Amino acid sequence: MAAAGSAPGEIRVASPVGRWVVLTTVLGSGMAMLDSTVINVALPRIGEDLGTDMAALQWTVNAYMLTLAGLILLGGALGDRYGRRRVFVVGVVWFAVASLLCGIAPNAGVLIAARALQGVGGALLTPGSLALIQASFHPDDRARAVGLWSGFGGVGAAVGPFVGGWLVDGPGWRWVFLLNLPLAAICVPVALRHVPESRDPAAHGRFDVLGAALGALALAGVTYALIEAPEQGASPLVIGSAVGGLLLGAAFVRVERRRADPMLPPSIFRSRLFTSVNLVTFCVYAALGGFFFLSAIQLQVVAGYSALGAGTALLPTTVLMLLFSARAGELGRRIGPRIPLTVGPLLAAAGMLLMLRVGPGSASFGGYVTEVLPAVLVLGAGLVVVVAPLTATVLAAVDAGRAGLASGINNAAARAAGLIAVAALPLLAGMGPEAYRDAGEFATTFRRAMPMCAGLLVAGSVLAWWSVRTPAATAAVRSERPECAVHCGVTAPPLEPERREG
User: Fold this and answer.
1) Residue 196 and residue 8: Cα distance in Å, rounded?
2) Does residue 47 belong to any structural domain of this protein?
């Protein structure tokens, strides 16, 4: 049980208990965040070790994203009903066990299944960690506590590719997953000892399990068709999966419209601004998902980087976000969101096009400085400009009482976008099943894929310029101050807490 004097809503950040609460929530969310950012640099080595094809590498990424995106909204609701600490601890333990299964997986099938289980754990602990912060701390300290959680999480995301590369080149790719075991061993007892249990007395109604299942299965059907099409072509299974996924998606929309307590309330999309900004989010994070998936392989297979070298090469992007995201948020509040949401994606698109210069010889110091570094710096600058104003605009588009829901929907949309991009880009670029083993083939298809990623960003920029233009929207964003000001949202925007009365 939690220590004495640690009642929900009364803990101060400067107290010993407050520091323990921050530690355990950072460790918990950090496990999921690290797994999202380190996996890409491990993919070539996983493929070599397990003898897999390109489709299996796509599934290694997407199995995790599929269950995480499909269940993250439900995970937050479970914590409100059954206890935030309880659901958080269950999520950490679940995630750790799934990580162990990933680390000992004898073949690609077991690894993919374990990654899907990891996503379930991530859907419990990711919203749960932020909910614990919001419920545990005194109202006067909540903003500071969320800021610490966001800042330390940003550091974890920034160093994730570096840590992943070091593990892959050192003890091996399996330690990318096994690293979660000691983190969980610290996190769980600290949570049980120091974090008070809390629930939402107003949480009522039935859980939208049907909606969550339909949403996840719809994504799974479409994803399967996109990933398997290069090898199976227009086979009955591929066509059936695509059609089934679309039908399940339509059923999901129908169910959500009819339920009294839907997981994804259709009414929230009555806000034109909210709908438009989520479409911008989809474009931006689809491009990012495809970029980081393919670039980590390009740097290793084509340019000749080690896993550590590839992770380090991409580091400037996340470091820029860590250092300047808060300042970009302040700039967005001063000038309004339209310019940052238009210019940021264009800068990021330019960075992705600069990656077309990366090829054999780029692994030298001179090659890195002249070919890789300019690309990742320009990309990072674009993300610095766009991500914080994007979050603020999402929050400004809804009533304050729905801020947590709006943030969760935006986060899920970003993860679904990355999922679809990782599934679709290799197909659209013409990558064969063995592309990652052949430097020439991968380089050719990479040159086709990067303009597609850039095109998504340009589409997001145009949409932002067209839709985020009303004086009311600008005024709302200028008054909005997201609590997660420091972040490295390369896989999804930062989650924002529910707004509570103090």
Assistant:
1) 6
2) yes
